[in-house]
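Chapter summary example.
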Amino acid sequence: MINILDKNKLVKAFSQVTPYIKQGLLASLLVGSSISMVNVNSARAADLLNEHAGAIKPVTSTQNLPNFVNLVKQVRPAVVSITSKMTAGGEDQMISGFPDGGNFPGGSGGFSSPFPFPMFPQQMPKQIIEARGSGFIISPDGYVVTNNHVVKGAKIITVSLEDGSKYQAKIIGLDPKTDLALLKIKSDKPFSFIQLGDSNGVEAGEWVVAVGDPYGLGGTVTAGIVSARGRDIGDGPYDSFIQIDAPINRGNSGGPLFSQDGKVIGVNTAILSPSGGSIGIGFAIPSNTVKSIIGQLEKNGHVTRGYIGVAAQSVTSSMIKALKLPAVDHDKAPQGALIASISPDSPAEKGGLNVGDVVLSLDGKDVKDPRELAVRVASIIPGTTIKLVVLRDGVKKDITIKVANLNDDKQDNKEIVKKPSNIGVALSPLTPDIRQQIGVEETVKGVVISGIKSNSPADRAGLQTGDVIVSVDNHPVDNPSAATDTIASVLKKDTNVLLRIVRGGQSLFVPVTSGDNN
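The structure predicted for these 518 residues follows.
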């Protein structure tokens, strides 16, 4: 039986449910709209994923990052830690631009590092100090390559291998100018050793691996890429470093830099860092330089370098017309080495080279700049005859020169007066090599300050290593003995001596007052 509701009740019931019906219809409409938008967006996304004829399509090569695990396992037994014990006899021990401290290459004359490192003098009277570095074995009979600054002045040198064995090392030879050293250790059994590669094949951008003993941690491996080749860091005429971004720190000095085929392409030597830690700018001596130097150290215990007796400078764009050189593109640097001065009675003078000549090639190979000329001449065996092609007054001319021995040449006299006077300086002759290092013109005659005693009259007067003394109390001096005698003569009559010096191309007068504390 069906109940029939009266009219009023039916109207009232319908009015109560109507809002809910309306809400349901609205919800249905919204859901339908949402579904429609999702369908549109999905279609749009699918369209974006489709290939389009006009889109940019980069062409790239997919390559995995290199894995150095096997390389490191194989070479690590030949990489060594080096501990040098030396006596600090009251002289300042300078911590400078090296990964492990020590003087900069070629810094035996006291020239400061070109890097902005803090340097901390520490007085250590009659005290044994230790220096740590790295190295690597290059022969089964125990020849070890490292940096000169790691072992220079050492009384005892200990070489530690990966397996924990330790050996006392003997210095076979040192070369401060390239900061290389050759050591020898002995054992009844042959040593694991690694091979020097060809650094000429190294290119910017390739992966390299550095292994060494940073902070005494031993056997530490870092990797990076070659940042640049032939880098000149301002140390001297033989600079030609490989720059790398592999982290190098204190203690890495003397350690090997490997290419991906496991060959040594460099010896880690210096870093550029405001704090002393790695910022990804390191420098390694190229392996081809190492081969030449180490070969001479093994044979003779020292390095013989070629010498022709010139100072050269770069050719600038503004010189091209005056020198009658061929024009070059505006974005390219002019090539060649402009001869700025020639030492009297030198091989260059005897061979007919003139000031103003531009050296274009040496033995058939182009000369890019003065540094390349210096490096290549230095690597030539003394007594060898070389052929230079020079441009003179716009005409090419062949010049034949017999290379002399840099160490034997009278212009390279290495005399150093250890205690020239009671003002506390050590003096050296102003040789062509030193002229080029400190940038002194050929017209300047004098003697160079190669060392200054701490808290001496010279130190208190503000004299610096690298200053050139040209006169003492207005008396010109051109050799250490003359300077020493003149200073001593003046100080017999007075406590003050007036020095005229050249520093950074500027001429200065510096009064020095002698005293008891010298």
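To summarize the output: The two ends are 133 Å apart (CA to CA).
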